[in-house]
Amino acid sequence: MKKMMVMMVMMVVSEASIIEKTCKETPDFNLCVSLLHSDPRGSSADTSGLALILVDKIKGLATKTLNEINNLYKKRPELKYALDECSKRYKTILKADVPEAIEAISKGVPKFGEDGVIDAGVEASVCEERFEGKSPLTSLTNSMQKISNVTKAIVRMLL
């Protein structure tokens, strides 16, 4: 019984150290650790698996942002031009960038995965720039840029 408990503790320490070791190589250690520990797959993932988890986080945030954009059309019709641009940008993340990153990382071609991840951050930035003055999407845009930067750092470890 004691031996089994020691082995379980060693596994947990080993799993945590893989996430922590990987996240130390990213621009935002705390965000990286938080995102990876929030997904049950993180505890048993290798570097490619960690990158795929983060791509899923990009997908989730893009979906959340697109839903917020759709809500803003009703609440803030004066922002239609900027919201149209943002809608287009976030649909690109969901329909092009995320699938490109998933396929490339899964097939062992991380360079193309990196391109998709970088583009997700660029698309979010372009969306933010379309607002004249205060954007109602700044928080979500900043989150997308941060997650994209963390993901990019992990994908680069695969190169």
Please specify the SSE layout and strand pairing.
Blueprint (H helix, E strand, L loop, with lengths): L1 H22 L5 H9 L9 H29 L4 H27 L3 H20 L8 H19 L3
Helix pairs in contact: 1-2, 3-4, 3-6, 4-5, 5-6
Explain how this protein is built.
By secondary structure, the chain is mainly alpha-helical. It has a single domain, classed as Butyryl-CoA Dehydrogenase, subunit A, domain 3 (Up-down Bundle), CATH 1.20.140. It has 6 helices and no strands. It is elongated. The chain starts with a helix and ends with a helix.
CATH-scheme architecture:
Up-down Bundle
Main pleated sheet: none
User: How many domains make up the 3D coordinates?
Assistant: 1
Helix count, per DSSP? 6
Uncertain ranges: 2-13
Strand content is under 5%
Question: How much is the average pLDDT?
Answer: 91
End-to-end distance, in Å? 42 Å
- What coarse outline follows from CA principal-axis ratios? elongated
* CATH fold group: Butyryl-CoA Dehydrogenase, subunit A, domain 3
Question: What is the helix/strand order?
Answer: HHHHHH
Q: Can you identify the CATH superfamily?
A: Invertase/pectin methylesterase inhibitor family protein
C-alpha Rg (nearest Å): 18 Å
Total strand count, please?
0
Which CATH top level class fits? Mainly Alpha
* Proportion of residues in helical segments: over 70%
Global structural class: mainly alpha
Keywords: Disulfide bond, Signal
GO molecular function: enzyme inhibitor activity
Pfam families: PMEI
Family: Belongs to the PMEI family.
